[in-house]
Amino acid sequence: MMGNTALLVLGMHRSGTSAVTRVLNLLGAALPKRLVPPGPGNVLGHWEPVELVALHETMLEAAGSHVYGLFDIAPEWFGSAAAAAFARELAALIRRNYDEAPLIVVKDPRLALLVPVWQQALALLNITPRYVLPFRDPRAVAASLRRRESRHEGAALWPPERGMLLWLRYVLAAERTTRGSPRAFLSFDALLADWPAELARLALQLGLSWPRGEAEMGREITAFLNRRERHEAVSRLDAWPDTVLPQIPEVYHALETAVAAPESGRRVFDAAAVSLAAGADMMRVYVDALEAEVRRLRPLQYQVEAVLGSRSWRLTAPLRALRRLLLQAPSPAPGHRLPGQRLPGQRLPDIAVPAPIPQ
Fold this sequence. Notes:
Elements: E1 5-9, H1 17-26, H2 50-62, H3 81-98, E2 103-107, H4 115-124, E3 128-135, H5 138-153, H6 160-177, E4 183-187, H7 188-193, H8 195-206, H9 214-226, H10 247-258, H11 266-308, H12 311-315, H13 317-328
Parallel strand pairs: 1-2, 1-3, 3-4
Helix pairs in contact: 2-3, 3-4, 5-6, 6-11, 10-11
Protein name: Sulfotransferase family protein
């Protein structure tokens, strides 16, 4: 892979990273051999490498984090022997998934939290990383995340504040670890509104020329983007929730400025990171306990869902309905006996049992 280039798509879940990855692929960047299949949360495809997603999960766990954790990985972990071992394993998976493709694209939201390990792995392969950082209004991200995750955990566990805090963690991690490198910020809304202009700007800022041009792939890109499902539309005029951290809208506006000037906004980003770290120190024990309890209850929830979806549960539905009717029936007045009802101490009449027929 001498002299090759990797486009790393770094962004929070529900921020348009899948759409951006597919568009970059249509322009000529190679995808991995084995992709995560489309699902209910993304019917047009995730465009994520199966093996790398699994390794990312293992890496996050080893670093004391997880995909929906609110707290940063300790910086010293990235210089550890464990991180170096993961980098070597990652390099082998990159080679296996992409062969000798001169331009590759890699997407997995977890990647935004693990950039230093990727930088080590790509250096082992002599691949130059260039970074695409898609972003979206955090209010829309939080609403989309709540809609997706409430299928599994219930909406109560996904208030908007949780989604926006996660958005902040991912955005700050991706911005901090790519400073000084070739990178481009990309508004998902701007991509949908005028993709030719946005992709031309990306090529200029990243110092690339796309293997396939607009004339060749324009119709297919337009058709793909027009099929995107957008359930959460947010206007700039919409009010921010009263409970939102003030740093979240500030960071969002700094990202919009960084589209034209990729190294701008550091003061805003750094101030937000300091505030987030201060809150983390106070809340880590409490939040970790809550997350542990959610993980404990999740298998029980899956068991309940399995019972509710079983054939036996469906077949016994009439019996449960009858029981509800009986429980809702008014109790008889004192001294009143329903037909066939026994009095206290009353025995049932003896019933003669016929003798067996001689053989």
